[in-house]
Write a structure and sequence with these properties.
The protein is globular. The two termini are 41 Å apart. A hairpin with a 2-residue loop joins β1 and β2. Strands 1-2-3-5-4 form a five-stranded mixed sheet, with helices on both faces. The chain is mostly helical and 680 residues long. The protein is built from 27 helices and five strands. The protein has four domains: 104 residues, no CATH class; 105 residues; 109 residues, no CATH class; 257 residues, Orthogonal Bundle (Neutral Protease, domain 2).
Length: 680
């Protein structure tokens, strides 16, 4: 996080005086800045622009925003000279994006950026042929400088046509072959893409923009792979085609190691295939896409309430998503089921044949040490619980195999503990989440009933927001819920002072860049059911209506998310309810525009129903659908009641809306694309 300029006023006076004194002892013409001076615009190269951006970023981090502004001005001047070159040098497009991002950061720090105009790059400009003279970005720049962009094409999985490119069957083996030793199983240059999920979080792949993706640029320029090797032209063309088509993932779990996919593409590469349980004798699949809870009989072991917390407590650290020990990731039920280098972690129906049990027991003949390493051995009753769960079929009783173990464990706790106890757990976890996402940013906490407000606004402002949020929880859109709290265990609201704070939260919790227009986000992170917003200034015109819209959106979305409803529907229900509650709010007009812009980008209902869309796009499409489908407060209340009674979402939805979700979304999407959709 970049420090606020106002926090460095006193410090800058001290440093400025010290710098003046130190300057007397510097050689004539010397500088007290250790950062490189700006290159002359006449000698501009992509590398010199990037160095100047590095310099500007460092100055901003050091609390010198005015000098950072000057450095950014130099970078923009060099960028303009590059844009005049024919053909356009490789790597220019991401530089323009990086300049725009830095300009926004400076503006958030209160710097006047009116004179900093980022040149626009025409999409029709030709790309250069790859030559040895192309600029060679540093390997670590892949992680530190890449600027992820929103998908420019419809989000879709590869079709069965000849043009489809499979990540699992084609791209994963390609990356493992050319990048594996340094950046798949290793972290050379502080850059790693151990899995599809990890690759996309680096920002090195810009969906729909293969030629301008940093991953392609460093390969095309010859900078990667190091050691004299070259990626064949046909492999590079395949990579570009995959990114151009949307950079979709076609396997069952995006956290699966790329090296594992490369070794077994046939097993992991089929799209839309149900998760295969490992070497099972009597395997019973977990809940399906409808999130239908598995009904446990008396004596059955609950994975969500008993096993998942055990694994999170004892296995986290060694078996996380990034470079897991023995390539066994225990981040999700799917990755645990898949196993690692030594094979399947468990054999459903037979604990005696399961590697997991042999490892925690330290049985004779196993490779390596007893698990967990560096912690006390598991007690006999704990191992017995694990054995019983495996012998009963190793079943998942809540959520889906793609959900993280921490999220599944949290869902298990929410089913077993009461409202007050869960609220204490949730509110304590919420402060930890703020500190993780906004490290070092001061905050205050206000609690009102079942609402916990955490933010970096002045205390009176947080008090006012908490009171309005408590009211929204009681009467969102006209008494949306019936008896009891609308969110069991309470709702956490993160109130961010500036859009940049929400960007940091979004990046840390969601793992993606915040769309510039988005000022709110509802979600679930472990035990925390949350809404995060950037509220309007209290003195702004229409501030009360805008704040009411944002709060109602978060309350209703969180109510559905806490009941394991699909994210697209939950966020859409929040927007539809907020539109009815505060129709004149500024966000409402923006949301309707987002829906109109998002519809053409959706290839079909599958991308929405599978929650494959980014959160902002899912909310826009979901909001348009719920409004068009007549998602009144009465209907949404009936749906919440059905979910509380244990009905799976798909069945409850069909009863309330008189059609299954797929049929209803297909009909709405067809009408919206033909211009026949009317939002009510």
């Amino acid at each position: 996080m970049y420090p606020r300029a106002r926090c460095f006023l006193s410090f800058s006076l001290i440093v400025g005086t010290a710098s003046l004194i130190a300057g007397l002892f510097l050689p004539f013409g010397g500088s007290n800045d250790s950062l490189p001076l700006a290159a002359e615009p006449s000698a501009a190269t992509p590398q010199s622009v990037r160095l100047e951006l590095d310099r500007a970023r460092s100055l901003l981090e050091d609390g010198r925003p005015l000098k950072a502004r000057a450095a950014l001005g130099d970078a923009i001047a060099q960028l303009e000279s590059l844009l005049a070159a024919e053909p356009l040098p490789s790597g220019v497009r991401p530089l323009a994006t990086a300049c725009a991002a830095l300009r926004e950061d400076l503006e958030l720090e209160g710097v006047d950026v009116a004179g900093l105009v980022i040149p626009k790059l025409s999409a029709s400009r030709p790309r250069p042929q790859s030559t040895a003279k192309n600029a060679k970005p540093r390997a670590k720049d892949l992680d530190s400088q890449a600027q992820p962009t929103k998908p420019a094409r419809p989000l879709r999985k590869p079709s069965s046509g000849s043009e489809a490119v499979s990540f699992s069957g084609q791209i994963a083996p390609l990356l493992a072959k050319h990048c594996g030793g340094c950046h798949v199983t290793g972290r050379k240059g502080d850059f790693q893409m151990a899995s599809y999920e990890g690759l996309m979080k680096t920002g090195a792949v810009a969906r729909g923009q293969g030629a301008s993706s940093r991953l392609v640029e460093v390969i095309e320029s010859g900078d990667m792979p190091r050691g004299g090797g070259r990626v064949p032209a046909e492999d590079l063309a395949l990579l570009v085609r995959w990114i151009d088509s949307g950079a979709a993932f076609d396997g069952p779990d995006p956290s699966t190691g790329i090296d594992l996919l490369a070794r077994s593409p046939a097993a992991a590469g089929a799209a839309a295939r149900p998760l295969a349980m490992p070497a099972t004798r009597s395997a019973q699949p977990g809940p399906g896409p409808a999130n239908q809870p598995l009904v446990l009989k008396p004596g059955d072991v609950s994975f969500a309430f008993e096993i998942a917390p055990l694994l999170v407590k004892n296995c986290a650290g060694c078996h996380d998503a990034d470079d897991p020990e023995a390539r066994l990731s225990m981040t999700t039920f799917a990755s645990l089921s898949r196993g690692g280098e030594s094979g399947a972690a468990f054999v459903a129906g037979s604990a005696a044949d399961s590697l997991l049990i042999r490892k925690v027991k330290g049985s004779a003949g196993i490779d390596g040490q007893r698990m967990p390493i560096g912690k006390p051995p598991l007690q006999a009753e704990v191992i017995g619980l694990l054995e019983k769960w495996i012998d009963q079929g190793a079943r998942l009783d809540l959520l889906t195999p793609a959900d993280s173990l921490s999220t599944i464990a949290a869902a298990g706790r929410s089913r077993r503990v009461g409202h007050e106890e869960l609220m204490a757990i949730r509110f304590a976890a919420a402060e930890k989440l703020w500190r993780r996402a906004l490290d070092g940013e001061p905050y205050a906490v206000v609690r009102r009933g079942s609402v916990c407000v955490i933010g970096n606004h002045p205390q009176p402002r947080l008090d006012a927001i908490a009171e309005m949020a408590e009211l929204a929880c009681k009467t969102p859109g006209g008494q949306l819920a019936g008896e009891g709290p609308i969110v069991k265990g309470g709702l956490v609201l993160f109130i961010c002072d500036k859009p940049y704070d929400l960007s940091n939260f979004w990046q840390s919790v969601i793992g993606d860049e915040r769309p510039q227009a988005s000022l709110s986000l509802a979600g679930v992170a472990g035990d925390v059911v949350y809404g995060a917003i950037v509220p309007p200034a209290a003195a702004d015109d229409g501030a009360e209506a805008e704040l009411r819209a944002l709060l109602v959106e978060q309350v209703v979305a969180s109510a559905f998310l806490s009941r394991a409803a699909p994210a697209w529907f939950a966020r859409g229900a929040g927007r539809a309810t907020a539109e009815r509650t505060a129709p004149k709010a500024a966000s409402v007009a923006r949301w309707k525009l987002e829906t109109t812009e998002s519809v053409p980008r959706l290839d079909g209902p599958a991308g929405l129903l599978s929650d494959a869309c980014p959160p902002s796009m899912g909310a826009a499409l979901g909001g348009g659908f719920v409004s068009a489908a007549g998602g009144s407060a009465a209907k949404l209340s009936l749906l919440l009641s059905a979910l509380d009674a244990g009905e799976p979402f798909e069945k409850a939805f069909s009863a309330v809306f008189r059609a299954d979700p797929k049929t209803a979304v297909e009909a709405w999407l067809a009408a919206a694309k033909s211009g026949g959709s009317r939002r009510r």
